[in-house]
Specification:
Blueprint: H1 3-56, H2 61-72, E1 78-81, E2 87-91, H3 112-125, E3 129-132, E4 138-143, H4 147-215, H5 221-242, E5 250-253, H6 254-266, E6 273-279, E7 284-287, H7 289-306, E8 311-320, E9 325-332, H8 360-371, E10 375-382, E11 386-394
Parallel strand pairs: 6-8
Antiparallel strand pairs: 1-2, 1-4, 3-4, 5-7, 8-9, 9-11, 10-11
Length: 405
Amino acid sequence: MNPYEKKRRWKFFLLFFAIVIGTASVLYSDFFVKKMEREERMQFQLYVKVTEKTMAMYDDENTTDLIDLIRTNTKLPIMIIGAEGNILTYQGLDSTKTNYGLQKKDGLTYDPAYFVRELKIMKEQHPPTPIIGLDGSRWYIYYKDSPTLTQLRYFPYIQLGVIGLFLLTAYVAFSSARKAEQDQVWVGMAKETAHQLGTPISSLMAWVELMKSRFNAEDDPLIAEMENDIKRLEVITDRFSKIGSKPMVEDHVVYTVIYNFVEYFKLRTSDKIIFTITGDEQVRALLNVPLFDWVIENLLKNAANAIENEGSIIINIIENLTKEEVFIDVTDTGRGIARSKFDAVFQPGYTTRKRGWGLGLSLTKRIIENYHNGQIFVKDSEMEKGTTFRIILKSSITYEPTSNT
């Protein structure tokens, strides 16, 4: 299992664990909410019974005092509505808004709309309980959930939100720290590689010059190819030395840069693979040629490895005048990539080859996005038919809109 697959499994495991914790928290809170609902329902039923007793024993002062004491100990918001819809009595409501006959006194006001709102909430939450009133008509008793119960209902979701926000913050912080650490490793490894390559390249150059002079081989094609490879090693060393520093980008004709590299690359690849460059030959973009060659090299190597026998690799250059962008499509006739892996192929460590390190496309993405301010993605792929990667670069030419006048 490659590192990317392990990372994905850990993410799924942590997500599953978080869902289990969240579900358990909601269910546990729901258990207490239901328990509290039953207790409040029992309190309300007791209040109704006590109120009915009050009606039956209205003239017995000793008994009514005891009943009133029991009723006032009920903390639920309650309203008793008469047969004509008028409010007869209430309790447990906001005392700053329920002062009949007082418009304003010591911060206390009478708010008729408040009663309407509260009664509407009570009707939505629970059905009324009818009783026979003192005048023999039917009265209705309404109640609503206590503030504590209401808060308890929303508590698990607030708790999950806070936990989620904390986890998101922690994830972003740790990801940033890990990315910074990875960048340091990339830079250190790249610069050390460039340093280590310097000495053997210098020696190889000296040996080639010695072979030329000793064997009079100035025009030998094999020596010329050896020189090309040494120059290629110098380019690779230059690439590694640029990792970690902001490389210079210059205006180049995209077709020419790609053509020069393909001419070098196809001589070192199977002759059963046909390379074709199509599209606009004049478009220009800001490029760092050594690093951009690295991008094309990684894409072509992956394309060549995906072609088992005979096949073709087509590089199509398109200019998007509207957005002032250059599209570079690299299409092969290889094995293809599953749609679920379109993003995964750019992850460090992801590879389908037994001896691969899974770094090529990751480096490619970093070079395009970090050093060329562009984009790269899998545009299209079909299993056993081929894949198209698309690179998007900003054009170095600014187009002025044409006037019709």
